[in-house]
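An example makes the point: we print one protein in full, the chain in one-letter code, the fold tokenised, without further comment:
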Amino acid sequence: MKLFKLNIMKQNWQCSDIPEEDLCSHGEIYLHVNDTIITQSGVGEEWGISESALALLRTIDNDYVSDPVNEEGVILHGCGAILMTGCPISIHWTVKHCDDQVFLSDFVKVTTTNQESDSIYYPGLKVKLSKTEYKDQVVQFAIQAKNFYKSSKEKQFFDDFDRKMYDDFWSEYNDLLERNLLR
């Protein structure tokens, strides 16, 4: 059994009646670390899939320190739209790179906008993976998220700002994904 398992279980548009205007996909995620399931289908949690994929891609080569009070997280709720800001609902963990190993720790799930009372901490939950194993999980998640966009209607934008944010988002996303597919 894998020590770190991350999958998209369901992916959809929040505005299913006008998917061409919805810029961020949402859905259910399965996140399993050691013997702990942090989120899964059927528990009433919806996450921002595309935003989370970009946040995860950023951690393949860079450390991330879990800070549920000041940071957006690694798995995002998605209520901040394409800008990836504005909502404390998220799942955090620290990602520390050391040579060819990746250490994951400090897992926290913030379930509402009241971070102080509605956060679930996972003390002692840690895992050490090869960088390849971590990268493979993140890349397959990002590919699955991107494939959902490929099969959807072309996006329509309300203004140039939304178009620029969308283009910048996908430019960074595609760059990080392609870079990690080549290694």
Observations:
- The longest strand covers residues 4-13.
- The CA atoms of residues 8 and 29 lie 5 Å apart.
- Strands lie at 4-13, 25-33, 36-39, 47-48, 75-76, 90-98, 101-110, 119-121, 127-130.
- The radius of gyration is 16 Å.
